[in-house]
Structures are given as structure tokens and as C-alpha cells.
Amino acid sequence: MVLGGSNYYILDNFKNIIDTINQTSPVKNYINIEPRLSMNYIFDNNNSLKISYSRNTQNLHLINNSVTTSPTDKWVMNTNIIKPEIGDQVSLGYFRNFKDNTFEFSVETYYKWMQNQIDYKDAADERNRVIETQLLYGKGRAYGVELLLKKNKGKLTGWIGYTLSRTEKQIDGVNKDQWYPARQDRTHDISIVAMYDISKRLNVSAIWVYQTGNAVTFPSGKYEIAGQTTWLYTDRNGYRMPDYHRLDLGLTYKFKEKKHFNSELSFSLYNVYGRENAYLISFEQSSSDPSKTVAMQTSLFRWVPSISWNFKF
Amino acid sequence: MRYLLFTFLLFTNFSLFAQSFTISGFITDKKSGETLIGATVTTKSNRQHGVSANTYGYYSLTLAKGSYELLFSYVGYKEQIISIDLTESKKLNVIMNENSLQLNEIVISATRDNNRITQSQMGVEKLNIITINKLPVIFGEKDILKTLQLLPGVKSAGEGQSGFTVRGGSIDQNLILLDDAPVYNASHLLGFFSTFNADAIKDVTLYKGTAPAQFGGRISSVVDIKMKDGNNQTFGADGSIGLISSKLNIEGPIQKGKSSFLISGRRTYADLFLKLSDQFKNNQLYFYDLNTKFNYRFSDKDQVFVSGYFGRDVLGLNNRFAIDWGNSTATIRYNHLFNDKLFSNTSFIYSNYDYNINLTNNANPFSILSRVRDWNLKQEMQYFSNNNNEWKIGLNVIHHTVIPGEITDAVSTENLSDVRNGLESALYASNER
Prior knowledge:
Chain A is an all-beta fold. Chain A has no helices and 23 strands.
């Protein structure tokens, strides 16, 4: 229920304010039913097949226009114009355990439809007093396959996960009303996690991750107005950040246990092979030749070592 | 906005008993008295037929009159077999021992060995705190949200970020709950640390597919995080000292075996290094947070839990510009057992996220405040029926307030954009077999 007591607006097709509503009674009431169903067919103790369907709705929305998140990203509620987001998901999965539950294997596939998705219009003014005048609404779809193999027991434990997926949006007024990749669309995603107990006191661990780069919007041209260079953006999320991959290592040493005091030392090394993963890519005019453009890549962390001492008494 | 949420988790064996009795109670850890969420109870003869302990460690199993060997199990704990002669309904509180033989052999999933096979839900991942502790992380600070990002279908929003996307959803489409309270911004230091202090956390469950009916309000996923209750057996402290952050966790009984408290705090001090450099000595960048919880058992049937979180980040540049932001949450929960099959929980929840921007170097200094605030009431009844079929019926009412930007200078306060209020109500019913 959208409660009254402040201003709400009525917009025309060009998102100009044509009227203002200010009433104390509720402005709008949205009613949604969310059916959810999960079923499991158990073949035997080690095999099962599952299917599920669910609908979810969302009444608070975070509006964000950049690649990274910021504490000042804007939360907005449903209004007479902003409708609740609706997500429908069907999924199907096969689960299998091996060797007395030492290994777990699963394949899950999903397909998701999303309605009333929100995005900024092109060249939006994020600081506009009436945010509804800067927003567009459309649909989303996401589908993928997730594979997981886990080892639960023994000296070596861990898992390997792989996801093949696609996430797209279709918003009238963006990319000629065509489907386009959402910012969080990543085709491939791999995680390998391993933990190994060398002795009772010493254990080592490693993580390797690989991801396709985010879909991003880069300028495809530039033009000059009154001596000022302005970038020309054509396709939203039409470009990709470079692929991301990284290896981290960890080591923990437990000191001898005393009756009322235990402690351990942990070492870790983040980004072991020092890959310069792109955090941001920005475009600047070349200083030597202003007609040329250079892309500048910002990377954050190469080789971040750390040490911590943990205690318990 | 009003919803009807339905979960029908169909399946397994139907059996109706001529004369049946109920065994019920709480399952707890011997050393700390912490309840074991999701511990399972089955009969030894039929390990498929059983129930699991709810969020508060309560179980209720109904069986036909007769003699049974009951098997209690929980990952990382010694299985316990208790023989009973069931001629009447009984209370049976079970205390379980950690499996010390396997202490350095970790088990990283689920509550029962083949839980992933037998539970009807899918897309559910439970994270073990031991796993979180063992994995390397940036800056040496173990982190729940970064460990979740290593699971298939969960992707990091960017380098070092605690923001994540699940199955193609956006960052805001994840409902992150800390003891039932929604957390609007789960990041510290622009995402390099998550809001959650792993030392104060007992249980983490991610639902990336179909979430149970009691969860609603986001379309992508639910991350349900439960804080520890605090050790109700002995006093203890633990903590860690690292290069850029340190933390301390203190817990202990208020009344032994009955009530306990927990206080856990964290502070980063990367900014101390900034003071050493001439260029940055007037800059600030740090966060701190505090988790507190206490619980009190009035009787076998009544228990109250109070938990709270407060965290703040501060970024300041040369005394000219400063921004600070943070979440605060508070949850009061009251458990009541109407009878051995009917469990009730009432929660009253507050959650607030705000940020403040201060500009102090011009002639007219001003500040901008932005806020999201929730007041929330939840009532849930859980009924364990005869054929160990579990019903849940609940009501959830949330009042939201969003203040997009309130600008204050020496003379006045004005809103940059309209303040909005909303009421979100949900009614749900679910059945799990």
C-alpha cells in the first residue's frame, strides 16, 4: 500500500509532470499472490530429482547507474507510477551423492521472468526532484545451468562450481527497444575451492575464480560542442569488461591447545599471480593527439598479503 | 500491497497412526548451549522418516505407540541414539557433543549426510562457519558474503565487493536478513568488508530458487543469517588481531543453562596509517560495528530473544567533505509453545539505513541525510501434524519510510525530494512433507 501524506505525480508520455496528488488516504494498493511449489522425487538414498516454481514480488527498488555499488545508491518505493517488480522462476535439478555421501553432485537449471524492471532513461538526471521522470520500465529474463561437485569428508575438502548463464533486459526506450545484456550478465563463472589438512595443526586453502566480464556501456564516439568534448553513447551495456580471474591462498597454524586458551595464526595472499583485473575503464583524450582517445584501466589489488592472530579463551 | 504466499512442498510417505504420541524438545550443543538449527531426528529403523529442528532448535516428532530407538544427528556432532518406550507424549531435550575425533576433518554442507538428496527444496545452500573460517579472504577478514559468492549461481558485483547477484537478479533483489531484520546495505568500506561479523554468526542459509513462504519482498534470493545466542554454560571470549582490523566477542550465561548474552565488536584502523603520511593525514576512512544479543527463558514454554546490530562507516577528506553511513537493526522475538505440536513466534523488528554527507568548507556548510526505515511485525504459527507434515501460517506487516534527501544548513531543513511511506502486508501458509 502506497501511503499518502506527500506528493505523488501524474506524468504524460514524455515524462512531464501534468498533475500532483497530495492526499492523506492511501494513494495506491497493489495486491499480488505468490504461489510457490517444490517437489522432490527420491529414487533412492543417493539420487533425487526436484522441480520447483515460485513467484516473488518486490516493493522497494535500488536505482543504480554505475558499475560499482555506492553507499549513496538510491532506494525508492512503489508509487502510483513505480509498480512492484514481479519475478517468476522455474527450476529443475538432479542431485546425486557418491561414496557414502563423501561426494555431492548436482545440476540445476533455471529460467526466470521478471516484470516491471526499472532502469534510468538515457542521459538521466539522477538528482531530479521527481525521480519517476528519469525512469523507464521493462522486462527481464535470466536462464542458466549450475553444476556443483563437492567433497565433504577427508583431508581434502572443497568444491568446484560452474555456471553458464544469460541475463537480459528489454526496456522500451533503451537500445531501440531490443533485448540487451543486463549489467550483471556473466556467461561463464567458475569457482574452485580447496581446503587441505596437512596435519592436526596446519591447514592450507586455495580459491580460484574466473568470470566473464560485466556488460558495460562505453562511448562509441565523441563530438565537440563549443570546444567541449562530449562522449557519444549508443548501446547500453554493449561492451564487455575483460575477463576476471584470481587465485587466493591461505594457511592457518593452530598453536598447541592449552586448557583455557587456544590461538591460531592465519596468513592469506589475495591475487597470488598479481593479475591486474579491471575495476574501472575510463576514456580520456590522448594528450599527444587530442583527436585520439585512450582507454584507461584502473585495477585495485595485486598481491594483498594479510596476517591475523585469532584467540579464544 | 498485500500478498498471499503459498508454499506447497509436496512429498514423501503418508502414514496415519491409530494411537500416536509426540516426543518434542530442544536440541542443543553441550559446550555452549547453542541451539542446533536443522538437527534431525529419525527412528533408527526408518531413517527416511523424520523431522528437523526449527530455527529455535525445537523439534516435534509424532509416532505410533511402541518402542523406538531415536537417532539424533547434526553435522560435526556425534550421533546420539536414545531408546524410548512411547506410551505417552514426552518432552525430551537433547544435548549433543561435538565430534572431537573429526575436529580437524571438516564437513562442509547440510545437516544430515544426504540432506541435499532428501529435502524437497532446491537452490538452498547452507554455509558452515568452519568453512568460512578456513578460506583465504582479502585483508584477512573472514566474510560470509564473499564465501557465498563462491557458490554456483552467485556472482560478485565486482572486485572485492560484498554486493552480489543471484541467478541474474540485481544486487537489490536479494533479501538479506540478520535475525529477521532486513539489512539494506550489506557493505562496509565501499564493499571490501561485509556488514556481518562472522564471529557473531551461527547459521547462514541462501535460497536462490524457491524460498519458503515466510520470506518475501525481494525477487531474486534470500540470505537468512542467524546470530549466535551466546554461550549459556560458561563465560568465554574470542577475537582476532589483524593488520587493518581487530575484533572481540564476549559471551556467557546470565543464568546457567537458561539465558545468555553475546557482545561482539569490530573496528578497522587503516586510517591510522593515513596519519603517518603528510598527504593524507587529515583524511579518515574506517568502520566499526557491534552485534549484541541476549535471551531469557521464562519457562519450558516461553523464551525471549533480543538482538541488535549497529554499524557505521566514516570517510572524511581534509575536513572539507565527510560522508558516514550505516545500518542499525533491532529484533525482539517471543517464542511460545501452545502445546507440543504448536510453536508460535512473534517478532518485532526495526531496521534503518542512512547516510549523511557533510560539506563544511564553504561559506554555508550543509549536510544531506538520506534514510530507509522499517518497522515490522511478524507472527508465525508452526504446526507439526501427525504424519510429520509441517504447517506454517503467518502474518507479516512492514511500514517503510524512505527519505531520499533532507538538506540541512545553518538556517533550515528542506527535502530535496518527496518523503514516501508504504505499508507492505503479507499473509502466508505453507506445508512441507
